[in-house]
Amino acid sequence: AMSQQQLEERVSEIKAELGDDLFIPAHHYQKDEVVQFADAIGDSLELANICKDSTAKYIAFCGVHFMAETADMLTNDEQIVLLPDMRAGCSMADMANINQVERCDDLLQSTYGIDCLPLTYVNSTAHIKAFVGKKGGSCLTSGNAHKVVKHALEQNKVILFLPDQHLGRNTAYDLGVPLEAMAIYDPISETLEFEGEVQDIRIVLWKGHCSVHEKFTIENIKNVRQQHPGMRIIVHPECTFDVVQASDDSGSTRKILEVITSAPAGTKWAIGTEMNLVNRIIKDNPDKEIISLNPFMCACLTMNRIDLPHLVWCLNNIVEHRFDNQIVVDKETTTHALRALNQMLSLQ
Ligand code: 13P
Ligand code: SF4
């Protein structure tokens, strides 16, 4: 096996060899050993925009599968998007498949008379984005969720929010939708749960969640309040409703970064988001006292599958024109999904 240093040298070598033909975007949750070689680092919204503008022949996407799919759809046919480890999926995106979503849509129409307007978090498969595009809906990310949901609410249709119930609930609540007007659809039991009358439902939340952000708890918040008086708590909106409500602030990856970076020296922060990002924020802000809201840290295992050996393997593949790890979304799916993606990008 190659040493860390040999691996690093190999990445630098291939980067120099391929020049502008190669572009390496990396999500903020990626490991430092990968991020050090990134041409761009960002959250999902920023990376989607950056890939759309990229003219590179090869895009070695350091992130998870749905992000690479999105990059493939937003770039042209000649550009090749590769994922350094094909097992880098997203447990949340796996919680909604297209058959389940179509069954839900049928049930809403036939049993409840609801012709929904679907919205999907970009953390979803290309097929789900295509379903949403066909029905006139939009994609969204944590960075523009308020804007997209607000726009959808103004159309006076019942929203079907896929696949993260927490982002959906937190966002809709912020926009004034009461909890009683939210129903939840369970794709396993294929049932819709709600408290009031059917005609009062404004949003149907898909019962999916992020296994990383669900690990931040009310217990964690109590402990921070007790052990670190004066410490401010900021969490990602993929955290549960109770946790977001009990925190001092919540926001997308980008917002968390902006809030902490612009905070005065000496301020104290507990952050509820992925471990690699929290560690990087701690390192980049030595003038502040920063901890993870959950003391055991919360790592996204699939994001962490992309490491230096996988990056080198991927780059070697490019040099050898061996594209086994290329991510390709078929034309038909892309056409429909692009409507939902472009709808999101036009709302910025
Ligand atoms: P953002 O990059 O949109 O903040 O999403 C967080 C996340 O969980 C990505 O998978
Ligand atoms: Fe998916 Fe959560 Fe990991 Fe993001 S952090 S890739 S939503 S499992």
Automatic annotation (TrEMBL):
- Cofactor(s) for this protein? [4Fe-4S] cluster
Q: Which GO molecular function, any one, fits this protein according to its record?
A: transferase activity
Q: Where in the cell is it found?
A: Cytoplasm
The reactions it catalyses are:
iminosuccinate + dihydroxyacetone phosphate = quinolinate + phosphate + 2 H2O + H(+)
Question: What UniProt keywords apply to this chain's record, in alphabetical order?
Answer: 4Fe-4S, Cytoplasm, Iron, Iron-sulfur, Metal-binding, Pyridine nucleotide biosynthesis, Transferase
Q: Which residues bind iminosuccinate?
A: 27, 44, 121-123, 142, 236-238, 253
| Coiled coil segments of this chain | none
The transmembrane residues are none
Cofactor: binding comment: Binds 1 [4Fe-4S] cluster per subunit.
Q: What is its EC number?
A: 2.5.1.72
Annotated [4Fe-4S] cluster binding lies at 90, 210, 300
Going by the entry's taxonomy, the superkingdom of the source organism is recorded as Bacteria
Q: In which pathway does it act?
A: Cofactor biosynthesis; NAD(+) biosynthesis; quinolinate from iminoaspartate: step 1/1
Q: What does this protein do?
A: Catalyzes the condensation of iminoaspartate with dihydroxyacetone phosphate to form quinolinate.
Family of this protein:
Belongs to the quinolinate synthase family. Type 3 subfamily.
What is the protein name stated in its UniProt record?
Quinolinate synthase
**Organism of derivation:** Macrococcus armenti
